[in-house]
Amino acid sequence: MDSVEVAAAPDAGPGPAWQSKCPWGAHNTTSMSCSLADVMSEQLAKELQLEEENAAFPEVVAVAEGPFITGENIDTSSDLMLAQMLQMEFDREYDAQLRREEKKINGDSKVSISFENYRKVHPYDSDSSEDEVDWQDTRHDPYRADKPTTTPRKGFIGKGKDITTKHDEVVCGRKNTARMENFAPEFQVGDGIGMDLKLSNQVFNALKQHAYSEERRSARLHEKKEHSTAEKAVDPKTRLLMYKMVNSGMLETITGCVSTGKESVVFHAYGGNATEDKVIPPECAIKVFKTTLNEFKNRDKYIKDDYRFKDRFSKLNPRKIIRMWAEKEMHNLTRMQNAGIPCPQVVILKKHVLVMSFIGQDQVPAPKLKDVTLSSEDMKKAYYQVLNMMQQLYKECNLVHADLSEYNMLWHDGKVWLIDVSQSVEPTHPHGLEFLFRDCRNVAQFFQKAGVAEALNERELFNAVSHLNITADNEVDFQAEIEALEKMNEDHVQNHGKKLPVFSGDGDPPIYAE
Length: 514
Ligand code: ADP
Ligand code: MG
Prior knowledge:
This protein is an alpha+beta fold. Among the domains are: 156-224, no CATH class; 233-365, Phosphorylase Kinase, domain 1, CATH 3.30.200; 367-495, Transferase(Phosphotransferase), domain 1. The chain contains 16 helices and 14 strands. The strands form 5 sheets. It has a 6-stranded antiparallel sheet with strand order 3-6-7-8-10-9, with helices on both faces. Helix 6 runs parallel beside helix 7 (201-231). It is elongated. It starts with a strand and ends in an 18-residue tail after the last helix. Magnesium ion (MG) is lined by residues 407-408, 420. Residues 223-467 form the RIO kinase domain. Its cofactor is Mg(2+). This is Serine/threonine-protein kinase RIO3. Belongs to the protein kinase superfamily. RIO-type Ser/Thr kinase family.
């Protein structure tokens, strides 16, 4: 099995206390290897996350240590930020120049070449995203645009003594010169065609080799830049976004990080001033969806088949898709809020940064259900509450949580709060019922293990939530029926453009109360 390098938790090494806790501070990373299967395991991911949290943030940063980001106290990292903003300006100018050159070269020619691939500011990076114009992949392969003319397959052209073969020195030399135009634009090739330069194969190959290795070097540099930003908790642009929230007075202080997951980083903040239309909670959670694109690849299936997002999905670039996760979490939370399900209240969404009310107190997040020790009375109460919330979620919000477990339920104020709903889907999602069944399994197993005698098993729970009344008495058949239903619904949607009525719930699901 392949061995995969996984960055382990940063050492809380020597240095000032804030440095070891502050995600802005540079941290050392060590590596350990584990198998690909391990990497794919959700359980392991959670454990690693926990380890990482414990090591990097043994506790939430205490107020006494000074504010994290405030209006007045701008830490030194903003110098870096300024430098990076200047660099961004510089890169933009470079790209503008590239565009001018591109235009000059192409002129009115029908066949055009593009330098798109050589721009410093990657289209995904573009900060002009405020305008929300969907980026479309209009790039074309510059190596294909102006292929040099080739000798026909027979290997020669002309007649009699005017025959020239593909090996003809002059033809070949000119062809090589033309091919040089295909090197990266930063590779200066001069006006070889204008000078009727004829390059021998040997010289051309040497130049080609050099051009490619230059290109690879440049790609490596870009890659390094990507990785170094990914290593820190959030990238400079996100920091800037958060900083703006403090600057505008919406947030008073960002105190520290409460969780670093694979796909998101969550910060605690004290709320700032209310505006005309917005009351800011006294304590807020800032969920930053990580813009390291790879992590989200695994989650495509949640969003790309979601009818609400389907049309947009295909048109979007990965960065926008990540914003869609944040947007999805916002919409789902709002639905839940409207149904009266205890969950964080949305404050604001800015790109991939979602601000919501903080579940917890004095910077300490409420414990996850898996970490809290409850009396058997409270555990039973929690169970019935979860059952009711699942039913409400399904019936009133038309949602399936899709990652429901003791990890995403917090115990606060004597009740369970649901969080982490960016992946939640409507039940008619092509895999919606499978997700629901998985949720039911997690919930049933957790409460059964916790000693709640009344806890329904996963199949009973599934029926109680969905009201689909699947009768199979074993898991395999049950799942087969679920999949058959999903398939039936898909076909129905394809043929009739609407979902099966059975999914809308025929009558109220039974409400199980204490
Ligand atoms: P992930 O996708 O990384 O699991 P979550 O939304 O589950 O993201 O957030 C990760 C952790 O951050 C949670 O387990 C919880 O401890 C904390 N957290 C998230 N949102 C809030 C919130 N609104 N209030 C308090 N803590 C929160
Ligand atoms: Mg979570």
